[in-house]
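User: Could you walk me through two proteins back to back? I'd like the raw sequence and the structure tokens for each, with a short line separating them so I can tell where one ends and the next begins.

Assistant: Of course. Protein one, sequence then structure:
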Amino acid sequence: MSTKNPYTISFGKIPSKYLSRNYVIDSIAEAFERDVPDEQAFKLTGIRGTGKTVTLTAIEQHFRDDEDWIVIGIRSDSDIISELVAHLYSSVPMVSAFVDANLNLSAFGIGLNITSKSPVASIDYALKVILSELKKSGKHLLVTIDEARKTKGIVDFIQEFQILIREELPIFVIVAGLYEDIESLENAEGLTFFLRATKYEMSPLNITYIRDDYKDTLGIDFEEAEKMAFITKGYAYAYQTLGKYMWDSKEKYLTKEVLRKFDEVLSEKVYKKIWSELAPKDKWFLQFIVKKETMEVGELLELTKTTHSTWSVPRSRLSEKGIIDASNRGTVSILLPRFKEFIEGLGPLPELMV
């Protein structure tokens, strides 16, 4: 084995050992690269730690390797259109030359103050003109927005984006965010286009792939690799975390110390944040659900002394957040690895008031 740990617990960084979501990456690349693209926007969503940012980064790298593509990452809390124009001017030489020769963007603090030309009054117009010039040169612009949430900047941008693609301009966008944040954007007034855009949910990684990776990378036997893979439940951040601490331990069998570190990192980096954002009723039901790998809904209602109507709203919220799987009628199970241990470590919760 090499001496450098191939796994990482740094969010967003592509680790040396990375189980790529090739289907998502290839599908988006194929759609964007068609001569006549039938889709110019995609959404990536999932709970924290499912690999949204890593997948987004991999897609960015794919297009950065193509000289006909310009890739710009933008924060959702910024004035996105102004930031885009500024980035294009400062980082793309052909755009810099075009703006300096043809547009007076001094009102926005961009480029030269061309006294012979009237200042451009609208940054939206400036972006449209720049995209038209990129189109003449056979260039395409990919805009990526990570940790997207509903802000004025992103709503304004998506509304303008709809106009730009109707005019067949070469702009493409990928937005990544938590379930609830993407949903709030989808439901925003005037963003029906965004609602219709294809959405990819970061589903669990393939357990077989994780098992084989652990076996080959860590040099452990099949049974131990399989046991570790099942512990992760396919959760991307758990796969990296368990691999990292197993590698550091240099052991061939999963130890209590490795598992302790695994639980500690998941708790500090992911679970405490997830838990803090849950409604009291959601937390109440979870402390019962985690008692079994899969629980019958009837048993859950009996344990909690509640009814289907009381359970229906928490069920929807927890399912939409990717915390539980309620797709099999009459049963519910936890999707997060060792979430039971995390919840039990919190101590007893207050009684639910119904």
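----
Protein two, same layout:
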Amino acid sequence: MSLRTLFAGDLHVVNVGLESFAQPLRDSGVDVTSIDWRPPAHGDDELGLDLARLVGHPLVEASNAVAMDRILAVQPLWVDVCPAREAIPALAERRLLLHAGPPIAWAEMCGPMRAAVVGAALLEGWASTPAEAERQAASGGIEFEPCHHHDAVGPMAGIISPSMPLIVVEDPATGRRSYSNLNEGQGRCLRYGALGDDVMDRLRWMSARLGPSLRAALRSLPERVNLRSLTAQALQMGDECHSRNVASSALLVRELAGALAQHPDLGGHEALEFLRGNNYWFLNFSMAASKLATMAGHGVEHSTVVTAFARNGVEVGVRVSGCGDSWFTAPAADVEGLYFPGFGPEDANPDIGDSAIAEVHGLGGFALAAAPAIVGFIGGTPSAARRISEEMATITVTRHRDYQLPGLDFVGAPVGIDVRAVVDTGTEPTITTGISHREPGIGQIGAGITHAPLECFIKALRAFPALPVEP
């Protein structure tokens, strides 16, 4: 085709790469379709070679299939509520607090996590004043370990102390268990770094009354609560089971209401009143169920499936099935969101919490098509929610059999984040989350959307164990 023939009719241009190349053509009235193409492996030759060795490798593909089969086979049943020291032996043996995210020392902790540590020390009677609690934490009198190291997860600061009541979730086929604390509600909560008499009184009531009433109610039910079934229903009702839990919380309370009402002596009526106004209630159940599923897929040799993504407010980290128990970290990302009146981005702490385990399991940002209201936090639309879920499918191994997205004609939620696909496409996983004030003692100031930094996945790919040489 000659140039004269080419320019004789209307031009339709495909622009690959930089959007700036397309704008002058559009300004001239040309019809332009832009493709957001990026060089594989972030344009890094060495990383590209590492990626090329793994992409399409039969051993990796088979290992990923094994990991996903194990993850999708888990049936998370809520079987108990008990003090954390009963579920996690290390909490009974040492003066230990569990926290969200990868490992971090007191000196490096962000404001909201420090406040949550202080509150937990006061709750346990280890200190009588905040200053005394801080001295103990700084001097080594209190030890710290990630929740993930004990098969547990905690939202935001994620602090779990010995007396806190824990949700116990079990897979009946394997007997494997996971844990999370009980949700305090929204606003001024310890997990967001709030401190005060209101916060401490609620925590004491949760230990003394809420935990025992839930335990008694659960034991009087004819069968244990299937969290997978509740999650699947909630996705049909507008939840994504991370930042939006209105339907799932209502479904869970419906399961418990009759049994709770039978235990007024243990605080069943008080529990019902508390749960009536707690639209975040299901979050911790969603997290524990997701942790139980993803830990089943961990430790599969040669698998590139992500099995944990967690944030401590300073760093975020991922764990990969075939990379042992190593954390691959990057600086915590900022959150784009909707702020409560009087607050703004300058007040926000960077991304924090274990709750992104929901995304690792195909919920949250990966299930946004089921909950378009979430993207309203950043001025988005239902079509944007659908686009995000479709984009997340490009970096996952498969789709969930039970977690179906009505906004996408009931296709399964994308699940099984693949390190190879993230690095290859440069697409960072989307996370829905709350926002905590960066200063200790204040608490929640909003909610929004963030992304898992690409750097975590690049580090994981570089460190991925060498594959055996084919004969």
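The longest strand covers residues 396-405.

Let me know if you want the two compared in more detail.
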